[in-house]
Amino acid sequence: MNLLTQLILSLIFLAFAPQNQQAPAASQGILGTITLREGNFMPGPNRKDKMQPVAAGKIAPREIFVYELTNLKQVKANGPFYSELKSNLVAKVVSGEDGLFRVDLKPGKYSVFSKEPGGLFANRLDGDGNIYPVEVTESRLTLIDFIIDYNASY
Fold this sequence. Notes:
Elements: H1 3-16, E1 29-40, E2 58-59, E3 63-68, E4 76-78, E5 81-83, E6 89-94, E7 100-104, E8 108-116, E9 119-121, E10 133-136, E11 141-153
């Protein structure tokens, strides 16, 4: 079973898993996985090993930070790492050993980061310079696969 199929099945099972009676299921927020990609993903005629599929990666438990939607103008950037964010922290969660995380949030737009040794990491921008934008809509879980790839070559 490939990694993408495992990810989708894990997210489905997590979404419908029995919940503790004291904690009702989230009706809206972010449900995601953390995938770590490191190494050479570049094709080449002389490679001894087979090229890893782009979806390859490994499970990577991490601390996840969710901020109000954050723009490049509101941070100090050092490559894919960010510091001195001038937006408000909304939630912080640690993914499980299976790489899954879930954050209950009000409807709105948010930016998602992982805590790395170099600072807060995110590798997506929209056309307006918003960092890893995720929109949460009412009564829905938004699914994301947060890929940490600052040590990967494509």
